[in-house]
Design brief:
The complex is a heterodimer of chains A (174) and B (147). By secondary structure, chain A is of the alpha+beta class. Chain A folds into two domains: 20-63, Orthogonal Bundle (Arc Repressor Mutant, subunit A), CATH 1.10.10; 83-160, Alpha-Beta Plaits (2-Layer Sandwich), CATH 3.30.70.3460. Chain A contains five helices and six strands. In chain A, strands 4-5-3-6 form a four-stranded antiparallel β-sheet. The longest helix of chain A is centred in the C-terminal third of the chain and has 15 residues, at 135-149. Chain B has 147 residues and is of the alpha+beta class. Chain B has two domains: 3-47, no CATH class; 59-132, Alpha-Beta Plaits. Chain B is built from five helices and seven strands, in the order αααββαββαβββ. Chain B has helices at residues 3-11, 22-29, 34-47, 78-86, 113-126; strands spanning 50-57, 65-71, 91-97, 103-109, 131-132, 137-140, 143-144. The longest helix of chain B has 14 residues, at 34-47. Chain B starts with a helix and ends with a strand. At the A-B interface, strand 1, helix 2, helix 3, strand 2 and helix 4 of A face helix 1, helix 2, helix 3, strand 1 and strand 2 of B. Strand 2 of chain A pairs antiparallel with strand 1 (50-57) of chain B.
Amino acid sequence: MNTKPALRETRVDAGPMLDATDRRIIVATQEGLPRVRQPYHAVARQLNISPEEVISRMQRMLDTGVIRRLGAVPNHYALGYQANGMSVWDVPDDCVRELGKKIGNLDYVSHSYHRPRHLPDWRYNLFAMVHGRHRAEVESKVMQIAELLGDADRGHAVLYSTRILKKTGLRLGG
Amino acid sequence: MDAIDRAIINNLQGGFPLSERPYAEAAASLGLDEDELIRRLEILLAQGTLTRFGPLYHAERLGGALTLAAMKPPPDDFERVARIVNGFPEVAHNYAREHEFNMWFVLATEWPERIGEVISEIEKATGYAVYNMPKLEEFFVGLRFEA
């Protein structure tokens, strides 16, 4: 696994900026682009708008972060990354952002999030999804994170998923 | 999967052009021709090596609301609770995890107010607390899986 810089840095809430045409484009492309030489023309024909409009609207969605990225979405299980541990950390609130960014930059962490604690039941405020080919690999990576955090690590746990109970995906209804 | 497939997976996880002939442009950057790239993508998708080829939309920015929620039903009541939770259309994913907090699910609703309502409804229907853990901040760098 390797990490390249994020393709977007903006943090604008673009939700309200989406109009009905944007939504039609999203519904038409959320399962993928057609594999034809002119995919945006194909989408345009389907929606009865011009290809230029499809391209410019998708460009704007990419610029505003509505589209995170455009390209291949690999199945990480198929690539051999079968052990995914949700690591959770109790770090001081005043440095959660700094530490979150540091952890988010590690090449084996897909996302790191600041989430609320629920004391006394749940003390962890920083989440990082750690990917590996097997548990031992995930565990050694979690140890690396612990070292990186040093004294800021006031406690952590790794929660492995044992079963998918439901997976319908997030879809915009068309 | 050969070296060319690996190059496709490793280099095309972002930055696919928004242009008249995007496959031709992407193929050129990999030293392939347009039809060869399209053919290989079809195979990688059919094999399940790629789940999708196209835009990856940012769910929260589509205007809806999203949260992660956790529960800790006792193991002997787990299946009943899972059935109730899964019965809510707002529950998009639900995972069993090894921990006292043994059930983790993503709630996606069209309107932000609905998140709190669904949480109350689940608590009422199951008799257990739901711990709402929305993200307060995301540190996203865009992990690329290497084939």
